[in-house]
Amino acid sequence: MLGHHYTHTFLETAVASVNAGCNLELSYGMRNNVFMHIPQALAMGNITLQMLRDRVRPLFYTRMRLGEFDPPAMNPYSSLDLSVVQSPEHRNLSLEAAVKSFVLLKNVRGTLPLRARDLSGQRLAVVGPFADNPRVLFGDYAPVPEPQYIYTPRRGLEMLGANVSFTAGCREPQCRRYSREELVRVVGAADVVLICLGTGVDVETEAKDRSDLSLPGHQLELLQDAVQ
Fold first, then answer.
1. Rounded alpha-carbon distances, angstroms, from residue 66 to 71, 74, 101, 201, 227
2. Which of 33, 5, 2, 38 is nearest to 19 (CA)?
3. Alpha-carbon distance 46 to 128, whole Å?
4. Residue spans per domain, the chain
5. DSSP state for residue 6 in the 8-state scheme
6. In order along the chain (228 residues), what is the average pLDDT of each group of 10 residues?
7. What is residue 122's predicted lDDT score, i.e. its pLDDT?
8. Going by C-beta distance under 8 Å and a sequence separation of 6 or more, which residues neighbour residue 49?
């Protein structure tokens, strides 16, 4: 609310939030956050002790129902580790969920899906700043997975046994420096070209909005050069 000029201080924001029924603040990494001003608001009479109790009660009731205050031995999930989470059964389920959630906006001439049996003898080029950079593949509020479980487009295609060549064209999504010569060389020798473009949290995320939907930096130029 402070950023949108609805209030002018954290104290005003705390009062407005509590009065509106808010009982939880997301302020990761902030020592002096908004709700730290609640005691001051209480002392000034801007909020009442009963109101504060009414806000806290459902919050802690939910936390108790979730078992946050139970001994670890009572939590059935505390014994789970990566050997369970990354088990073949769970990874296959994640793969199935990913496959079933893809949306093809346009599939001219039935180009997709690419099948391993159709790639024999084919030369694939995987290009773009998102083709083989695990760090940029996850959006805002995404978990940070173990690197060995991240499959970039390049790594995934190489597992199919395809003859894959690669160039990023530009190292990061901002794409400030673009190597056209390398891209043309790789694309020109390929039968199938996959171009991996986008934004990522380096370009846009919460509190980092953009005024348009254009591809950042030289990415559009990279796409046009690959198509030509």
1. 12, 12, 29, 31, 52
2. 38
3. 54
4. 10-74, 103-226
5. S
6. 83 95 85 91 95 95 92 87 91 92 85 81 94 90 80 89 92 94 95 94 85 93 96
7. 87
8. 42
pLDDT for the residue 1: 66
Alpha carbon 196 to chain centroid distance? 16
In sequence order, which residues have a C-beta less than 8 Å from that of residue 178 and are 6 or more positions away? 169, 170, 217, 218, 221, 222
- Give the H/E segment covering residue 180: helix 180-188
pLDDT of residue 165: 96
pTM, full prediction: 0.71
Residue 203's closest CA among 170, 181, 180, 227?
170
- The pLDDT assigned to 133 comes to 93
Q: What was the pLDDT predicted at 197? A: 96
d(CA 216, CA 172): 10
The domain 103-226 belongs to what CATH superfamily? Glycoside hydrolase family 3 C-terminal domain (3.40.50.1700)
Q: What are 218's two structure tokens?
A: 């030289």
Q: Which residues contact 121 (CB under 8 A, 6 or more apart)?
A: 163
